[in-house]
Design brief:
Elements lengths: L1 E5 L3 H12 L3 E5 L3 H8 L10 H10 L3 E4 L2 H7 L2 E4 L14 H14 L5 E4 L7 H12 L7 E4 L9 H6 L4 E4 L3 H18 L3 E4 L1 H34 L5 E3 L8 E2 L2 E2 L4 H13 L4 E4 L7 H4 L7 H7 L4 H10 L7 E5 L7 H14 L4 E3 L2 H4 L3 H16 L7
Parallel strand pairs: 1-2, 1-4, 2-3, 4-5, 5-6, 7-8, 9-12, 12-13, 13-14
Antiparallel strand pairs: 10-11
Helix pairs in contact: 1-3, 4-5, 5-6, 10-13, 14-16
This protein binds nicotinamide-adenine-dinucleotide.
């Protein structure tokens, strides 16, 4: 397929390079002459792992080219991506004049040919409708393009990976013809990764992008709020304990529950200590390899080969290492009450202590039984920590 990318910034360049790499012929357009000069030399104006290799490879094989001419690229392409910047105006609204300007130039160029015009820039809901109006206003009577919304979710620094291995592809389209073309465009990525394709209305796709951005900013704000609360607690002379559990069904894969996996809980611990928890409470690891199994985030195989083994003490030690190498305390949790509570509590305490942990909290195991048995269990845990013979492994 032939693709025009208008605006080769972070989003446009990444999209263009990746679409060329999966076999499309891509014409990238930008109105910044310095940027074009750099790109034509096969260099990347942005730092992005893998970008320069893909740039060089696809420029050399003739699938990727750069110019300042919207008209010729738009005329040639089947699909035209609008990837220009949409900065925030002083009043907080998105500046859409660059999108509008590009839409007008596309309209003047395309004539009677059918094109799919794709809004990839982050825009307010109903912008695609405005783009369509602009196309009709400036195009001629026979102009019949579809405008779809295909929001971008890449993260700067992992942009190529995020595009080649997306969590999801959102296509906002009110036209079956345009939808089919978009699915065809992404087919190699969809087939290779099995990424879910969400076909929704144009307005929904525009809204989904804002939903995703809002969710991310809420998570950051929430972590910041906790961190501020912890800071205040420290000023008042208090110490802070954070339960860093991973409670989510998404951590289950093929019948295995990775919510207590050493790698995933280790990362949770690291986040906890970074927002100034003085003690982390975490479940004792029951397995490892959660990142790989649920295909979440990124990790290195060396984590599993060199940093830990499958021994329970090593797995717990990995959690300790993620608490600033044990400078922040790790207490493991006793877990639910069941069979062999006393033996299990002692085992958890021994593993925690030998891994360099700080202690064990046992609520349900201790309190959901007669007072005498509960006291015996708590004393047994205490004995482990008092016993000098049980030392770091
Ligand atoms: N950067 C990100 O991480 C990211 C992620 C998701 C979505 N987005 C959204 O994608 C859009 C683009 O973001 P970006 O970070 O790539 O922006 P950017 O500023 O890096 O790139 C925009 C490019 O468009 C070019 N441009 C502007 N007007 C033009 C015109 N008339 N003709 C040709 N080229 C023109 C600029 O020269 C620039 O190179 C924005 O709406 C942004 O909010 C960005």
């Amino acid at each position: 397929m032939k693709v025009a990318i208008i605006g080769t910034g972070y989003v446009g360049l990444t999209t263009g390079v990746c679409l060329a790499d999966i076999g499309h012929e891509v014409f990238c357009v930008d109105n910044n002459p310095q940027k074009l000069e750099i790109l034509k030399e096969g260099r990347s104006p942005i730092f992005e792992p893998g970008m320069e290799e893909l740039l060089k490879k696809n420029t050399q094989n003739g699938r990727l080219s750069f110019s300042s001419e919207i008209a010729s690229a738009a005329k040639e392409a089947d699909v035209i991506f609008i990837c220009v910047n949409t900065p925030t105006k002083e009043n907080g609204m998105a500046e859409l004049k660059f999108v509008e300007k590009v839409a007008k130039e596309i309209a003047l160029a395309v004539g009677a040919d059918y094109k799919v015009i794709v809004d990839k820039s982050t825009v307010p809901v109903k912008t695609a409708e405005k783009v369509k109006d602009t196309i009709h206003r400036y195009g001629n009577a026979s102009t019949h393009c579809d405008v779809v919304s295909n929001p971008e979710f890449l993260k700067e620094g992992t942009a190529i990976f995020d595009t080649m291995e997306p969590d999801r592809i959102v296509i906002g389209s009110d036209s079956e013809k345009a939808t089919n073309i978009m699915v065809e465009l992404y087919k190699p990525i969809i087939e290779k990764t099995g990424a879910p394709v969400r076909v929704v209305s144009v307005r929904s796709a525009e809204l989904i992008k804002h939903g995703a951005n809002t969710f991310l900013s809420i998570k950051i704000s929430y972590a910041n709020l906790i961190s501020q609360a912890f800071e205040e607690a420290h000023e008042l002379g208090m110490f802070t304990v954070l339960w860093c559990y991973l409670r989510n069904d998404a951590f289950k894969k093929n019948g295995v529950d990775y919510h207590a996996s050493a790698d995933l809980t280790g990362q949770a611990n690291h986040l906890g200590v970074t927002i100034e928890a003085d003690i982390i409470k975490q479940k004792l690891p029951t397995n490892n390899g959660g990142f790989v199994a649920i295909d979440f985030g990124k990790t290195s195989p060396l984590v599993y080969k060199r940093l830990t083994t499958d021994h329970p003490i090593d797995l717990a030690r990995y959690q300790v290492a993620n608490c600033y190498m044990g400078r922040i305390g790790l207490i493991n949790s006793g877990g639910a009450s069941g069979e062999n509570d006393l033996a299990q509590a002692v085992r958890t305490a021994v593993i925690n202590k030998r891994a360099g942990g700080t202690g064990l909290i046992s609520g349900r195991k201790a309190f959901q039984k007669p007072m005498k048995d509960g006291i015996e269990l708590l004393n047994a845990i205490q004995d482990v920590y008092l016993d000098k013979g049980i030392s770091i492994a």
